[in-house]
Amino acid sequence: MVRKLILTFGISVLSLGAAACNTIDGAGEDIESVADEVDEEL
């Protein structure tokens, strides 16, 4: 029982960590594209 609980918790943490990394990467790409557009305008 405890083993299943620990396994479930570990999988949940890894899944949330992977989702957070993807979100941060996407935000970084958005910021970079905005910066590129600003550079082109100047």
Polypeptide structure, described:
This protein is mainly alpha-helical. The chain is 95% helix and 0% strand. It has 1 helix and no strands. It has one helix at 2-41. It is rod-shaped, with a radius of gyration of 18 Å. The mean pLDDT is 79.
Tell me briefly what this model is.
The chain has 42 residues and is mainly α.
Topology (SSEs and partners):
Layout: H1 2-41
Largest sheet: none
Residues in helix, %: over 70%
Q: Name the helix and strand elements from N-terminus to C-terminus, one letter apiece.
A: H
Alpha carbon gap, first and last residue: 62 Å
Q: Provide the low-confidence segments as ranges.
A: none
What's the overall average pLDDT, rounded? 79
Which structural class matches the secondary elements?
mainly alpha
Beta strand count: 0
Oligomer: single chain
- Write down the overall geometry: rod-shaped
If you compute it from the alpha carbons, what radius of gyration comes out, rounded to the nearest whole angstrom? 18 Å
Number of helices: 1
Strand content: under 5%
What attributes characterize this protein structure?
single chain, 1 helix, rod-shaped
